[in-house]
Design brief:
The chain is built from 9 helices and 23 strands. By secondary structure, the protein is α/β, with parallel strands linked by helices. It has a 6-stranded mixed beta sheet with strand order 20-19-18-21-22-23, with helices on both faces. Strands 2-9-8-4-6 form a 5-stranded mixed beta sheet, with no helix packed on it. Strands 15-14-11-12-17 form a 5-stranded antiparallel beta sheet. Helix 6 runs parallel beside helix 7. The radius of gyration is 23 Å and the shape is flat.
Length: 473
């Protein structure tokens, strides 16, 4: 039976944080009923040239698991499926420890969620499903109906604007019809829904869409500050009978309007007073120096949780769309090891950059120090004292595993004018403070990205701040 999903929160996995070999990663199972899928699949990658063994898995009694393999060959992955079998209603909090041959300490996963009804106690339900039970390879798109309602009255809302974002790119914008809904075929995966309507607070919601989900209901809350227009004798335009999908250019305009809505809850940082007078879309060379930037991207397995990878990809794509031909942008990735994922590329090769961003996948553990050093090596290949030279780390947590000397590296290059900033994707407060301190070593800033609205503007704003020449005199 298909499941009707109701989105009542802005984020599905807000509790997870950056992964280290001795830290805890939170796996959020959400609300579970008798029809829910109770397992989460994790990819465990081996990007090295050596074999890695999964030595053992320790877990709570109400947890079962399956592995595709105990041995992970070089440059390959294994899959870990973790199922929870709660025995009673209410919140649960279980622990699973994964011991691996390349890690001194176990990787600890804390499994959290809520059981909303009594579950059947049949033995077969407590067994973790075999991987053969799930079709291998990409699944075909399935129909999904998106419904918008008034949170208080449950009334269907026509004329709602719904924008969908997938894999860091806009996938379309719809205006709901008289019944407040529309239907679209979507492949399995994580999607962002940005919903707005006159008189209501703009809402963003991220959810994993699978073949078992047929409907998503998004409740909107009324804006208490909304001042409705004075009624006129002019006839009121009735809503369309059916939903309308907007053409690409109009869809992008609508998405920009939604993102610019000040009512949306966001953590966009305050900017320097001089920069406020320049429109946010302005990146003209008369105000901003040429940019030579290399991003050091955390693709450890913790970035797989929830919408983190999508937020990172969307942020990077927003920047790529604004790059000028004279700008250069490179990508270094780090997990268990670090590598140059995209050599510094000029801003007029946007398709190449966007393709690389689309191909980013979470895999492995965390080795941020190696990535930082490699990022500086790449940025120095195009170093120019007349440009803004930057290394920017994007991560969801602490990135200094095995890198006690990263501060020295940052300070060394800061003397040459290379700015070091850190972008935190849904970061916990404790890790955010560490990131702020790290950015200070490199004369940069900490850039928080908690939601889609932040991803739309915060990274670009950091580039504008770093490269700002000042107002014309």
């Amino acid at each position: 039976m298909r499941i009707l999903a109701i989105i009542c929160v802005l984020f599905i996995c807000g509790l997870v944080h950056g992964q280290q070999s001795n830290s805890e990663d939170f796996l959020e199972y959400g609300a579970i009923d008798s029809k829910s899928k109770r397992y989460i699949d994790l990819n465990i990658g081996n990007p090295t040239e050596e074999k890695i063994y999964i030595l053992r898995v320790e877990h709570s009694p109400e947890v079962t698991y399956r592995l595709t393999a105990d041995l992970i060959e070089p440059l390959s992955t294994a899959q870990l499926r973790i199922q929870v079998n709660p025995s009673k209603k209410g919140n649960f909090n279980y622990v699973l420890k994964l011991f691996m041959s390349d890690q001194a300490n176990p990787i600890i996963y804390r499994l959290v969620g809520t059981v909303t009804e009594d579950l059947p106690d049949d033995n077969y339900l407590t067994k973790c499903p075999d991987f053969n039970a799930v079709p291998a390879g990409p699944n075909a798109p399935s129909e999904l109906t998106i419904i918008t309602i008034d949170k208080a009255t449950q009334e269907l809302l026509s004329k709602s604007t719904v924008s969908i974002i997938h894999n860091g790119q806009p996938s379309g914008t719809w205006i709901t019809g008289r019944l407040g809904k529309f239907t679209e075929k979507l492949p399995p995966g994580f999607f962002y829904f940005l919903v707005s309507r006159e008189g209501y607070l703009t809402k963003e919601a991220g959810i994993y869409v699978g073949p078992e989900i047929s409907e998503i209901t998004i409740p909107l809350s009324k804006n208490p500050a909304y001042d409705p227009p004075v009624p006129t004798k002019e006839p009121v335009q009735e809503p369309e009978e059916i939903a309308q999908q907007l053409p690409p250019e109009e869809a992008q305009e609508k998405l920009n309007e939604q993102m610019a809505n000040e009512i949306i809850d966001t953590t966009t940082q305050k900017v320097m007073p001089e920069l406020v007078s320049i429109p946010s879309e302005n990146f003209d060379e008369s105000y901003f120096r040429d940019v030579n930037v290399v991003f050091v991207l955390d693709i450890s397995s913790s970035m797989k949780m929830g919408e983190k990878m999508d937020l990172m990809k969307y942020s990077l794509n927003q920047l790529v769309s604004k790059l000028r031909p004279q700008d250069k942008m490179g990508l270094v990735t780090y997990a268990s090891t670090a590598e140059v994922f995209q050599a510094p590329t000029s801003g007029d090769h946007k398709e190449d950059l966007q393709k690389s961003i689309s191909n980013l996948r979470p895999i492995g553990m965390t080795a941020g120090g190696k990535g930082i050093k490699m990022g500086y090596k790449e940025v120095m290949k195009n170093y120019d004292a007349n440009k803004t030279n930057m290394v920017i780390v994007i991560t969801d947590g602490a990135f200094n595993k095995d890198s006690e000397d990263y501060q020295k590296t940052v300070q060394k290059y800061a003397k040459n004018g290379v700015v070091f900033s850190v972008v935190g994707i849904q970061t916990r407060e404790r890790d955010a403070k560490l990131m702020e301190e790290a950015a200070q070593f490199g004369n940069g800033r900490f850039v928080p990205i908690q939601k889609l609205a932040d991803a739309h503007s915060n990274l670009m704003q950091e580039i504008r701040i770093a490269s700002f020449k000042g107002l014309k005199k």
